[in-house]
Specification:
Dihydrodipicolinate Reductase, domain 2, 15 strands, nine-stranded mixed β-sheet, 15 helices, single chain, alpha/beta, Rossmann fold, six-stranded parallel β-sheet, about 475 residues
Length: about 475
Amino acid sequence: MVSRVIPVDPFDLVIFGGTGDLAQRKILPALFRRFCAGQWVDGAQIIGAARTGYDSNGFRDVVRESLKTHAAKQCQDVSALESFLRRLDYVALDGVSDEGWGHLARRLKPGRVRAFYFSVGPRLFGPLAERIEAHGLITPLTRIVVEKPFGHDLDSAQALNATLAAHFTENQIYRIDHYLGKETVQNLMAVRFGNMLFEPLWNSQYVDHIQITVAESVGIDGREEYYDRAGAMRDMMQNHLMQLLCLIAMEPPAKFDPDAVRDEKLKVIRALDPVEPHHIVRGQFEGEGSGYRQVVGNERSTTESYVALKAHVSNWRWAGTPFYLRTGKRLVARSSVINVMFKDAPHSIFGADAGRHANVLSIRLQPNEGITLKVTIKEPGPGGMRLVDVPLDMSFAEALGPENQDPPDAYERLVMDVIRGNQTLFMRGDEVEAAWAWTDPIIAGWQARGDVPKPYDSGSTGPGDAELLMKRDGRRWQGINP
């Protein structure tokens, strides 16, 4: 099965912060891979913009070295690399003054999609938006892309949304969450709404509970200052895991349309109950000389590097079905997986000796993207009816053929969706604010109670209290598999 590549119309993409880590490590390699896949047409251009005093050739040299590291496979085609680099330009400008903006305006071509990627800190979003409008760069085909964090709490998110709305319409604003660009995340919707097999069972009558795990084996190296202000709740739970919860729990939209999909996601967030204090666990990793507090240089830090919680969606479909979410740093393995745990059969005809057996649908986001359905069969051999659980496993790389063993990176899909004008996989302003409205009381409760994170060993599955969170309900976490 060969993926069909649909070329996009010519565009101008300006990357503010074009010399920074995100642009060099993720955005530009993603664009190069899409270029090599034949998704560009002649005339498209990328303009890097930053305070660094490069000229265009100097910027191309920097990008060339980055691509050799982050798009090594495609860089083997030297002619493709050089052809891509010729489509790059550079403007030195200041985001908080008018310096260099006239040069940028002269580089842009009329009558085409004009996308501005804010690959900079949130403090520059407002000044950049103001100057884009002040210099007459906004057209009906203008889009802006902003990276998380979308605020630090509800008040700051509302202020950020108001700032952007003063210069752009909502359909011009693309709030990017790279998790939504993952192939398997999008397959959540395909599995749910494209298969009659699952949708009739996707409710509290048949589902016992749902687990969402985003485990990371890495720490916070290079992000110490930001992370100690944010913590796992703000950095991961409020956005990435919230989005996964929405896609799992949402009602079928009337059509696969950006606003129809985001309307249903918003309903899920608004249906979330407040989380009780005894239904949440915070943790902080420890290690000989490399514990969290040593890494951030603050021996009194109470910032969490791990969160596990039990949530309820109070609507008709999910009443009584708990959702268990967990995420953490320095865990035993890197693994993102959603486990839909179905209920036991109402009556076993095989007797007590057969044990308990329930179906589990596991949706693996990373690594080894794929879907596994655990079903119960008879164990082979004589000696009676012995039951055993076996997986029906579909690894995307194996099922879809060798040509699909290297699926597009999330940024490849999302940046191309910006050019196409498709907002389905991007967060809407009211969605962001609703997520903060649910998250803020949890954080405020920690502060009011003087809550201190539970220690856990680096390389473990997290604090022991997270296991107790499940055991109290007679359940257990599925393993964090390497």
